[in-house]
Amino acid sequence: MTAPMLKKKMKPWTLCAGAATALALLAGCSTSKNKTDTQYVARDVSTLYNSGKSRLDRGQYKLAAALFDEVERQHPYSPWARRAQLMAAFSYYMNTDYNEAIGAAQRFLAIHPGNKDAPYAYYLISLCYYEQIADVTRDQKITQQSLDALGELVRRYPGTRYAADARLKIDLVNDHLAGKEMEVGRFLQRRGQWLAATLRFRVVIDKYQTTTHTPEALERLVESYLALGIPEEARKAAAVLGANYPGSKWYERSYKLIEDHASAA
């Protein structure tokens, strides 16, 4: 399975609602003007926040994040600062600055763990990991981090709409991790390392049994067990495959392998 990169960005549904009408939107997009936007100049909190919102609406995500960060720096005890923290995290996410987005969301959670927008912060963190999932041929550390973050969201806020989406993503992440085990197992088979290969295929069957890779994993176990000279275990794997996936090509292959082995014995 290729990395599940769902690039449709999620809007910060509740965060922008109720924001005051922009008081002093900054005009122009030149480099010199952008520097003026973010350099330290004491400004009232609503002007800073709405300047960030204006930049966000125009797709200038990095500049928007800097302006929201400035809200927190200049007005740390204002109610706007709490909102700006998550808006900064969202802006970094939209700019694919994932580490910065994770850091901003984690700071929000550290300061406001019981806030009503905490589920969204957890969701944003999980999205940042999820969208970095690499192809199965590469290291899967980030994939595991994605799974952990999604699981944390579901555990803490099971009834939210964020958790509903997280559950779907967990299924995709598990399928991806199973695909990695299959990729390694097939590699070991090609090298004749049958015992090591069986361990990989067993992980798929025991840990990721609801994924799309389970039928192939069972068939690969049949191959490996026959190569190891333990046909009884091969027949058991084939029986499980036949009981659960009777019409699959993997069962047909395993059935033929068992028959060919019996004929040669």
CATH architecture of the domain at 1-132: Alpha Horseshoe
Q: Could you name the CATH topology of the domain at 1-132?
A: Serine Threonine Protein Phosphatase 5, Tetratricopeptide repeat
* SSE class: mainly alpha
Can you identify the CATH class of the domain at 1-132? Answer: Mainly Alpha
Largest sheet composition: none
Binned, the helix content reads: 55-70%
Model description:
It is a single chain. Helix 2 (45-57) runs parallel beside helix 4, helix 9 (194-207) packs antiparallel against helix 10 and helix 10 (214-228) packs parallel to helix 12. The chain is built from twelve helices and no strands. The chain is mostly helical and 265 residues long. Helix content is 69%, strand content 0%. The protein has a domain at 1-132: Alpha Horseshoe (Serine Threonine Protein Phosphatase 5, Tetratricopeptide repeat).
Which features would summarize this protein structure in a list?
0% strand, disordered N terminus, 265 residues, elongated, Serine Threonine Protein Phosphatase 5, Tetratricopeptide repeat, mainly alpha, 69% helix
Per-chain topology:
Elements: H1 31-38, H2 45-57, H3 61-74, H4 79-94, H5 98-111, H6 118-130, H7 141-156, H8 161-190, H9 194-207, H10 214-228, H11 231-244, H12 249-264
Helix pairs in contact: 2-3, 2-4, 3-4, 4-5, 5-6, 6-7, 6-8, 7-8, 8-9, 9-10, 10-11, 10-12, 11-12
In short:
The protein has about 260 residues and is mainly alpha-helical.
